[in-house]
Amino acid sequence: MKRIILIGYMGAGKTTIGRALSIKLGIPFYDLDWYIETRRHRSVAQIFAELGEEGFRKIEHNMLHEVAEFEDVIISCGGGTPCFFDNIDYMNRQGQVVYLKATPEVLTRHLQMGRTERPLIKGKSPEELATFINEQLAWREPFYLKARYHFDVTLLDNREKINDTIEKLTEILSQ
């Protein structure tokens, strides 16, 4: 049985890596935010608007506990998931947790180009976004660093590099 749980800041490539790793290993992939949206019949943005961050985090915690019980699965978590309740400790007990680490500059660039609506950064100017990311990383990184594996994804900017990352990650996870 294999459970691989990907964590890291939003825009680090958790979903991209998760999908590619799923294909490589032939096991199902779940994006926790998508799972929440499917189960709750609302977008993450709607849940945030209706219940606030605290309400969303409670739902996220419960859904994490649900999906992390699945066998042979790859899960990508939201950027804040490891930072609330006992989530990071629970993840470490459930499977192989991988922190996908990127520089604040890369994260800012990815999020500025992003096509999805992210409630925590909606409406921020490029300067506000960069400041916000740096502040959030300072608070979140101690949680991320509790992951068993740390993997630099700073240069993950084309298909060849993604494939190379998947090969290296597969090798590390099989040890």
Description:
- 55% of the residues lie in helices and 13% in strands.
- Helix 1 crosses helix 7, helix 2 (32-40) crosses helix 3 (44-67) and helix 5 (104-113) packs across helix 6 (126-144).
- The mean pLDDT is 93.
- It has a five-stranded parallel beta sheet, with helices on both faces.
- It is globular, with a radius of gyration of 15 Å.
- With 175 residues, it is an alpha/beta fold.
- The protein has helices spanning 14-25, 32-40, 44-67, 87-94, 104-113, 126-144, 159-173, and strands at residues 3-7, 29-31, 73-76, 96-101, 149-152.
- The protein is built from seven helices and five strands, in the order βαβααβαβααβα.
- It starts with a strand and ends with a helix.
Quick structural summary:
The protein is an alpha/beta fold.
Layout of helices and strands, plus pairs?
Layout: E1 3-7, H1 14-25, E2 29-31, H2 32-40, H3 44-67, E3 73-76, H4 87-94, E4 96-101, H5 104-113, H6 126-144, E5 149-152, H7 159-173
Parallel strand pairs: 1-3, 1-4, 2-3, 4-5
